[in-house]
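Batch manifest, entry 17 of 40.
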Amino acid sequence: MSEKHTILKGTFILTVTGFLSRFIGFFYRMFLSHTFGEESVGLYQLIFPIYALCFSLTTAGIEVAISRCVASKIALAKQKEARQLLYVGLLLSIALSTVTAAILQVNASAFSIYILGDIRCEPLLIAISYSLPFASVHSCICGYYLGRKQTKIPALAQLIEQIVRVSSVYIIYMIALKKEQPITILFAVIGLVIGEIVSSLFCIQCFTYRKVFTRIHFVLKNNFSHLKELLKLSAPLTANRILLNLLQSIEAISIPIRLQQYGYTSSDALSAYGVLTGMALPCILFPSAVTNSVSTMLLPTVTEIQTSNKWEQLKKLIQKVILYCFSLGFFCCILFLLFGNWIGTILFHSQLAGDFLLTLSWICPFLYMNSTLISIINGLGNTTTSFLINTLGLFIRIIGVIVFIPQIGMNGYLWGLLASQLSVSVLSILYLSCHLKKREFAT
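Output type: structure tokens
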């Protein structure tokens, strides 16, 4: 199968499942907002910076490292070493996630009061901590298959996780209604945990129970070199993701606080944050199922091309990716400008969501392009560069939160978000252009 056909096939599978998942998620968020209210949705969204930080510490860097290392081993026809890298990554990620989950449970109260500023987050943090070990299994196995450019299992795992999450929340909600018990946003967190459990069991079943878990002794005894290789790549990735998530946490926690400084009540600020993160942003991100699929396939593809020193092929690939992603973003920008108000008022019953969509529409061309550009840079192994670019973008967003929200309200953040995405696009393109020119000159 040709390289182009492999990328297109993988992108198509991931895109279809991505759209199905987002389509389900779109109506799921409508269900959450109508059932639990904007303030509860804001409370639900408030715990995700902590969850994202824990996920970055235990899984995210290891998953990307597995994907890149496996792609490199497959390019060199080292199938056995590729599997061994997965075993090592699983052991490392499960151990880290189990310890992190325990720490999160013990300190949930302190995190809720001193970091998130709302004690109501405590039961949500305790509940979501149980998903971390299962998320690590799910992510590592998916990273392995993505490194091999086999997308069916990761795509199905994503779809199963979403279907189970939504179904379980609805079932719990109906049982609570029938028994006349309190309706709480904790149901949504429990659904997330159930979704991760089922998804991880599916991934284990696909890889086969015996294949993964009968190798533990062999891994510990014979694969120290693979552990070093994995840590060498995953450690900076993990450190980068942790710092980025810390900055994102500062951003997320600061938004409701700064809105209160602008003049909102505590309840109104949390509601506005819930509308932004639970309604408007998911709509803007909905079409990115395409570009995220392309990004996922690009990382192992770029790694293989780099291993083979086919720099002209890489240059043409990057040019096509930039053109296609920017074109998709421009089309979606026009679409949201025309129908943003309708989506907010008719689908979400929120005029505020419509207003946010109109402003956020301008980020689409850059937002959809950036995920693929960063994936290309990571595929080249230049994770420090992608980290610096992303960090600069986040600093711009934080400036929008801290400086401009107290002056002009939520628009200060939205325009800061636009400046951030534009900066990431420009810097990524400049870096890739310089990198390719150096390689062409060297050859």
